[in-house]
Amino acid sequence: MKRILIVGILVSVLFSCKSELEKKEELNKQGVKKLTENLTTFINGKIKSENEDLIIDSISILRIDTLNEKKDSIAVQYALLKYVERLNEVVKNTQEQAKIRNRQVQLSKELGSDADFYADESKKLLRNSQENNSKAIRMINHLNKIDSLIKFKKLDTIKTTGYEAIVKIYAHDSNQANRDADSIGFYFDKNLRINTKNIDRANSEIK
Q1: Under the phi-then-psi rule, with left for phi > 0, alpha for psi from -120 to 50, and beta for the rest, what region is 104?
Q2: Range in 13-17, 64-68, 124-128, 146-150 with the lowest mean pLDDT
């Protein structure tokens, strides 16, 4: 279940929230219905694209929080941190593979065999490692910029930019096995459409 939802999911960040009365004024019952419908469509689309054996029975909204520029930026920070962790792991693994290729080069030479293939592979792996390391550095620099904006209170905390919905998903597979997922966070824009901008913005730092 986690693999299916990872593109659309960021772990819920604890934010200070507007009063329940304000939330109800901004997001009425019709809005909650629209939000649920959009979320169901999004999840079913991910299931189909992943060819996953999963059937959504229903979605229960546990909590809805309003978002602002500051909260959005904090969410971006979280996404960036997760990508940095992933990139660091990729860099580490790539460097290990390059070392293995270098040993194969030496063995091939000792055996009098052609070592060009292993040498080329080693160069490609090292180049890939350097590129990913540079991406991680760019992400860290961007994280530092966001930290500065938050520290010096440069981000708006009043105007609503969207919503975060904490939901429980009731689901099963073709064998009728329970596949429920509890307390999952999704982001929506002001029009209650699934908002993946935090993931997209973080991902743009990699490409």
Answers
A1: alpha
A2: 13-17
Contact 4, 46 (CB under 8 A): yes
**93-122: pLDDT as tens digits:** 999 999 999 999 999 988 988 889 999 999
- The whole-angstrom distance between residue 127's C-alpha and the CA centroid of its chain comes to 25
d(C-alpha 155, C-alpha 197), whole Å: 17
Torsion over CA: 163, 203, 134, 128 (sign)? positive
Tokens of 178: 């329970």
Report residue 18 as tokens: 């507007």
Structure tokens at 159: 């105007």
Strand pairing report for 55-67 and 162-172: antiparallel
SS3 call for 18: coil
Q: Token pair of 139, please?
A: 């992400």
> Which tokens go with 80?
């960036």
Read off the tokens for 108: 């091939």
